[in-house]
């Protein structure tokens, strides 16, 4: 008699546990898809920076407004600043990208 009660309780516990797992799995599959964090430009820099490469480095479009360029520059620079463990080379490339997109590039040629 006791064995039947223990066996019945075990079967009931297994059934309830399975039911919980199935419902949890269905809820997990039905959740909205949240886009993953954007990945930044991984490098492989060109000898002379182009507007396309500058936009990839900052994670914006080539024709974005100056304010958006400043915000993107700040965000990327905070993550890569040399004073906080970042690379001086990457910081230089980030600054060069900001200058290129802002129109302050030194590689625009002679004014004469």
Automatic annotation (TrEMBL):
Single GO biological process annotation from the record: protein import into mitochondrial matrix
Keyword Lipid biosynthesis (UniProt): no
InterPro entries linked to this entry: DnaJ_domain, J_dom_sf
Domain of life: Eukaryota
GO cellular component: PAM complex, Tim23 associated import motor
Main location: mitochondrion
Domain J: 52-106
KW Ion transport (keyword) present: no
GO MF, one example: ATPase activator activity
Function noted in UniProt: Component of the PAM complex, a complex required for the translocation of transit peptide-containing proteins from the inner membrane into the mitochondrial matrix in an ATP-dependent manner.
Binding partners and assembly: Probable component of the PAM complex at least composed of a mitochondrial HSP70 protein, TIMM44 and TIMM14. The complex interacts with the TIMM23 component of the TIM17:23 complex.
Entry-linked PANTHER family: OS03G0776900 PROTEIN, PTHR12763
Protein name: J domain-containing protein
Organism: Papaver somniferum (Opium poppy)
